[in-house]
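Quick start: load a record and inspect it. Here is Helix-turn-helix:
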Amino acid sequence: MVMYMVKTPSWPVDLLRALIDRILDETGMSQSQLAALVPMDQSQLSRWKSGGSRPRFESLEALGRALREKYSHLNIGPDELVIAGGYKIDHDQNPEKLETENISPPQSVIEAALNEQLEARLAAMQSNQDELLREIKKLSRQVDDLHRKHEQGRSETDNRESA
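Running the structure step on this input writes:
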């Protein structure tokens, strides 16, 4: 048996992922276009979403300022992104890492994360239902085939007995 060690991010990656997904959905931007607002490479944004790399405070602020300026209807600015990235906002001091139990993300981020989880569960349930339906149809065909073979066998036996 092969065992893998999985490193758990020390920041709320699910919150940031949900917020980024919401931004992409509501603006219609690609990941590359969103990354260009920072500016940074699209692969870095992918690492943020996967939890492979924690975003720098300054990068989150830059992205938040760009979104506030170009997509004000989203009501997402630096503060929302910085919080989703796991930083505490203290405008008088330097950014400070949050302990995960102290994180209080914006309601929109929580709702987006919950909606994403719900959609994934519903998709999995639908997939399971489709698979079960295919299996039932397959078994039904097999039963029909067995009935036909049984009837053919009876007919052949009846024909031999009557001859």
